[in-house]
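In practice, a research group might receive sequence data for several interacting partners and want a quick structural hypothesis before committing to experiments. The following worked case mirrors that situation: the sequences arrive first, and a predicted assembly follows.
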Amino acid sequence: MVNTSVDTEKKILEAAKRVFLVKGLSGARMQEIADEAGINKSLLHYYFRSKQQLFKAIFEEIFSHFFPALISIFNNNEPLELKISMIVDQYIDEFGNKGYVPLFLINEIYQNPELVSSLSGKMDKMVHSEFMKELQEGIQSGKYVEVSPMQLLSNILSLCIFPILAQPMLKSVFQIGNEEYNKFLEERKKLIPEMILKNLIK
Amino acid sequence: MVNTSVDTEKKILEAAKRVFLVKGLSGARMQEIADEAGINKSLLHYYFRSKQQLFKAIFEEIFSHFFPALISIFNNNEPLELKISMIVDQYIDEFGNKGYVPLFLINEIYQNPELVSSLSGKMDKMVHSEFMKELQEGIQSGKYVEVSPMQLLSNILSLCIFPILAQPMLKSVFQIGNEEYNKFLEERKKLIPEMILKNLIK
DNA sequence: ATGTAGTTTAACCATTTGGTCAAATTTAGG
DNA sequence: CCTAAATTTGACCAAATGGTTAAACTACAT
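A structural hypothesis for the assembly, expressed as tokens:
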């Protein structure tokens, strides 16, 4: 029966992820993380010296998962048009009912932008991906309208993620429940790529 | 020299607004608000019984300002095409360097959706505005593509607000500074209405 | 079995935090 | 001026919070 350090560390990380994601750095409590992991609070400090360090471990895990999902699509063999649909599907499926994940990232980075600077290596892969090459080639060949990659990527991410962040607000404003909201998101899987492509293809 | 209750209350509200907007409910400290207002901490509890009540006062002020800006544009005399441009300009100008305002709203509503339910009256005006009438008429007359108002409004708000929320992240990913970021936002004032209209007009 | 290193726990600690209260100060009316 | 009410303050409190420490427990090699 191996129920030792590796196991405990994993339990802590999973518990901490759950709590930090929902409550954020300032809202999370070490005691709550310990309870969630079913261990003594001191153990948290035994494995991770401080709240800050535990948080950093979690943040980097979440952050490191968020963009690679994009990057792997950015670098696959499909044509750019399909890549866009894949990104939209991916984000809506993955975060449609987990808006707290992108919200967590936006929040913590907004409060403390340095969090990212140490991880900037991961970004380069995105800026220099197949997606970007294909885009630039398409622009030069006259297939695509001239558009800055930053604007295009912002448009895609905005249309996918914002309605997920604003889910409770949208539900209130338009007086709808979960069922209708999910239909709304499903509609967007078609709507967003159409919109992006209609503005990209000459 | 009238330097009495009215004055103090205003000082408190302004200080609380500054602190709550940036730190959020859980991150804000009553002592910090008191210092910011230049008064004793006990006074906060004299004017507003608890942190919760002070927060509620601030939240409602922020929230009540956020949508009416939209609503007044929604109900003016300009044609729908121009209304859209006005909304985009309004939000980018107002929140371009104050992303913490929409972020504050999204956050606090996400954590506590009931915050909005008491204010739902304000929303009706938006759903039943001139904008929506014009949209529906345009759709019926065949001028506009058939699109749900919720999708359209989500698209507009997404494209305006998300890049403002994600400002620090975008700056990191694309390795740009304030100057270039502001140019990016200015570009969007043209880009967004073009994009919305190209997808709306048949 | 036994000693040792690694792991886990309970008991504490110092600081922070939202909140209370009685005393002090200011304001305004008679 | 005097007084009563409203306003403001400093001292204080209990609970919560991140963190420490020494003791207890476990695994395991000898």
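Before designing any experiment, note the following. Residues 51-74 of chain B form the longest helix (24 residues). Chain B touches chain A through 50 residues (CB under 8 Å).
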